[in-house]
Structure formats: C-alpha cells, structure tokens
Amino acid sequence: MRTYQQKVEETRHDWYIVDAAGQRLGALAVHIARALSGKHKPTWTPHVDDGDHVVVINAEHLELGGKKWDDKLYRRHSGYPGGLYTRTARQVHAKQPHRLVEMAVRGMLPGNRMRGEQLRRLKVYPGAEHPHEAQQPRPLSEVPKI
C-alpha cells in the first residue's frame, strides 16, 4: 500500500457554523481548531492546508469555568520598558467579546506557516447575525453542548 498524499488542487473548504451560547471556551476552541486545520477529514495531510471555514455566532454568551473571568489574564507588551499591558478575561469580554474565541483558537493551532491562513477562515460575531448566509454553513456537530 502507498501512503496517500493530498495535493493542493484537491482541497475543498466547507463552511460550518457554531453557536457559542452556553459553551465553555476551551471545549469550543478545541473543536473549532480541529475544523480549521482539517484534522476531522480522512484526507488530512500535515503539509497541506485542507481546513474549513468556521463561523462562530453568539460569542458574547460563552462561558468560562470557575473564577476564570477574573483570574485569566491576557498580556501584551509594547516593546518599551514598563510596557506590559494586562487585562482580565472579563475586561476583554466587555470591550471585544469575539477576541476571547479568536485568542483561544489561535493558541490551539500549531505555530507554523499555515496558522495565519487557518485563522483567516475563522469568522467570529458577538451576536446571532452574520453575513455568510450565501455560503450555506452547516452546523459543526462535533461540539458537545454543556
């Protein structure tokens, strides 16, 4: 038997939709990252980007467990001395609810050349409205309801 190697011309990017209302951030991000990277497909090949488009709606209604709203910190640095900025998950959620999902999924994707292209296929919206009805996204059924 020969090992199957998918070619770039054979890739097909499907569209999926995920409702984040009542979902835990970590469990949701795992399933989204698998769909973006294409690991749920039998034709997955490590060096070919065969992932799908994922539309996440109701990102403002997701859940974090325990005291993570106040204990989970997001840090960034300006590059200057004393330029460390720290915000809690509650502060990030209050200003940009979609950023929590984007950062969690980004952290679960491998840090290689394909991560940027995979993240471009992630669309996150705070409410139930999204402009991707023409693509007819199907529900991503792998995400368990908690």
What does this structure look like?
It is built from 5 helices and 6 strands. With about 150 residues, it is of the alpha/beta class. It has a domain of about 100 residues: Ribosomal Protein L13p, Chain: A, CATH 3.90.1180.10. Strands 5-2-1-6 form a 4-stranded parallel sheet. α3 packs across α4. The chain starts with 14 loop residues before the first strand and ends in a 7-residue tail after the last strand. The mean pLDDT is about 90.
In short:
With 146 residues, the protein is of the alpha/beta class. Helices cover 29% and strands 17% of the residues.
Could you say which overall geometry the principal axes of the C-alpha atoms support?
A: globular
**Helix coverage percent:** 25-40%
Subunit organisation of the chains: single chain
**Which stretches of 5+ consecutive residues score pLDDT under 50?**
none
The count of helical stretches stands at: 5
- Across the major sheet, the strand order is 5-2-1-6
The proportion of residues in beta strands is: 15-25%
Looking at the structure, the CATH topology of one domain is Ribosomal Protein L13p, Chain: A
N-to-C order of helices and strands: EHEHEEHHHEE
CATH architecture of one domain: Alpha-Beta Complex
Radius of gyration: 17 Å
Average pLDDT metric: 92
Measured distance between first and last alpha carbons: 42 Å
Say how many strands there are. 6
CATH class category label of one domain: Alpha Beta
Write out the CATH superfamily name of one domain.
Answer: Ribosomal protein L13
Q: Main sheet? A: 4 strands, parallel
